Amino acid sequence: MKLQFVLGAAGVIAVLVLPAYSKCPVNETSVLVIKADTGDLQVDTNGKEPYVDVQTDGGKIIENCGKQMIEYSGNGAHSWKITTPRDIDLDLATIGGNITVTDVD
To answer: Is 5 contained in some domain?
Structure first.
């Protein structure tokens, strides 16, 4: 009984602290739209792969991968780490946080 409780509690803790991972393919005409209700957006535009990589520290993320527009929206995350190639357009918004973008053209 104690072992089941410990394993159950460890499972709940693991779910709460594991980051969410999402990826969408992009090209040079893509627009990345991020609409975050909460959290800091940290965007690294030095991605070498032709996709957007979004990682959060939790919360709920909704992903919509289109051919021309890639959209992520969500709430409850304190931090968003976004890696993207340099040659796409960015449309970023957060209500409760800061936006940091590195190496912008």
So the answer is: no
